Amino acid sequence: MVVITVVILLIVGAFLALRHFTRQDLPDKAVKTDHGDMSGTTMGTQAVAAAVDKARAGRRGKVSLSAAGKTALAKYESAVEAGTNVVMQKQEEAVRKQQAVMLAAVKTPKQLLDYLRKTGDYDGAVKKLKELIGRGRESAIEEITKELSPQDSEDVLMFVGLMFADIGTAKAMNSLFSVFDILPENSDAKRDMGEIIATVTNTDCKLLMVEKMLSSADTDTSDIAQRALANMANRDVMLALLDGYLNAPNPRERELFADTVRHMRQPEMVPALKYIVDGERNGDLDTIGLAACDTLGIIGTREATECLIQSYVGLTNPATASAVCAAVQKVYNPESLSLILETARDSAVPEALRLASISALRNYDYGLVGEVLQEMANNSREVQIRQAAGRSLEHVMRYRARE
């Protein structure tokens, strides 16, 4: 009896669901719920589902559905899924139409912000903001910024920030910093906003970023501005950084400019870093030149490593030479392995640079460098070379053993 009852309920449920969800339009009279409009028929299918669940629970697993029961259940579930999709699509379409009407009525930046607060329609808001600016409302961004407050939700603040980032002008980026300041400290939203600012590529924003880097008492803001400058770096930006560094009135500002260079870790930044090393150098490297060398070592491409090795030639200050060697030791890019091996084995290369190259070999797998290190550790005439090769060999063998 239990099985027959379940099958009957499933068939009735499937019939009702299919009958309702194949209709072209929603019922004129629908029940309002937190989940949207639901017709009485939809509620009927839910009642059937509840009855099925109750029947299943009552069996306590002692009775299995027959083949007919399983087929009816599959049809029922398929009908409910299809019907749910239809309802959701119609609801989404209705929301879109309503939002389009609301957005068309937006005439001022304040109305646009209110629209965004109510709907969360980011795409529509960006389009409307660009439209307002295009019609001569140049102050739209500042007007929206003035209306923001800490009482706004993080979602609204993030949407506004994303709008400003999409506009991308220096004025928009300045307002984006204002949004960043409003967001709660240590929140995920604030961290995300910082990442958005740091990815700016519009070089028209370089002076703004320099200003934020130098004037902000907040280290997070300074760091974000430095990363943004590093991200947009080209010849003009590098000249601005060098000029700022050379004319900085105090050591703090000089260090901030140098630290910006340390953020330029993308391989495409190598020419800009090389420009600093070659152009700033005058017998020795200053702080910003050493920062460029350190970053070249971290990037470690063939071009970056060649620049490092060449920069060592002609250095007269032992501390500067030591800093360049420390940068060479950081190279781990496979692209530079042959150059590092060549430098390590070349007896004509200054010993300090050879030692740095041997130390860099510990950054590679044993299979790539083990044989060379073993040969140098056993057969090199120079004591320091043998010792350095032995230490690097021990390191790569220990790392190999852990794998």
Write the layout of secondary structure elements.
Layout (H helix, E strand, L loop, with lengths): L1 H20 L9 E3 L2 E3 L1 H20 L7 H38 L4 H11 L2 H13 L5 H8 L6 H14 L2 H13 L5 H11 L7 H10 L3 H13 L3 H12 L4 H12 L7 H11 L6 H13 L2 H11 L5 H11 L8 H9 L5 H10 L5 H14 L3 H20 L1
Antiparallel strand pairs: 1-2
Helix pairs in contact: 1-2, 1-3, 4-5, 4-6, 5-7, 7-8, 7-9, 8-9, 9-11, 10-11, 11-13, 12-13, 13-15, 14-15, 14-16, 15-16, 15-17, 16-17, 17-19, 18-19, 19-21, 20-21
Structural features, described:
- This protein is mainly alpha-helical.
- Among the domains are: 100 residues; 140 residues, Leucine-rich Repeat Variant, CATH 1.25.10.
- Helices cover 73% and strands 1% of the residues.
- It has 21 helices and two strands.
- It has a two-stranded antiparallel ribbon.
- Helix 8 packs antiparallel against helix 9 and helix 19 packs parallel to helix 21.
- It is flat and about 85 Å long.
- About 9% of the residues have low confidence.
What's a quick, concise take on this entry?
73% of the residues lie in helices and 1% in strands. The chain is mostly helical and 403 residues long. The two termini are 63 Å apart.
List keywords for this structure.
single chain, 403 residues, mainly alpha, Leucine-rich Repeat Variant, two-stranded antiparallel sheet, 2 strands, 73% helix
The total count of strands amounts to: 2
Q: Fraction of residues in helices?
A: over 70%
- Widest sheet, order of strands: 1-2
Basic shape: flat
Amino-to-carboxy terminus distance: 63 Å
What sequence of helices (H) and strands (E) makes up the elements?
Answer: HEEHHHHHHHHHHHHHHHHHHHH
Radius of gyration: 33 Å
**Number of helical segments with 4 or more residues:** 21
The share of residues in extended strands comes to under 5%
What does the average pLDDT come to?
Answer: 82
Low-confidence segments: 6-12, 14-44
CATH H level of the domain at 264-403: which superfamily? Leucine-rich Repeat Variant
CATH topology of the domain at 264-403: Leucine-rich Repeat Variant
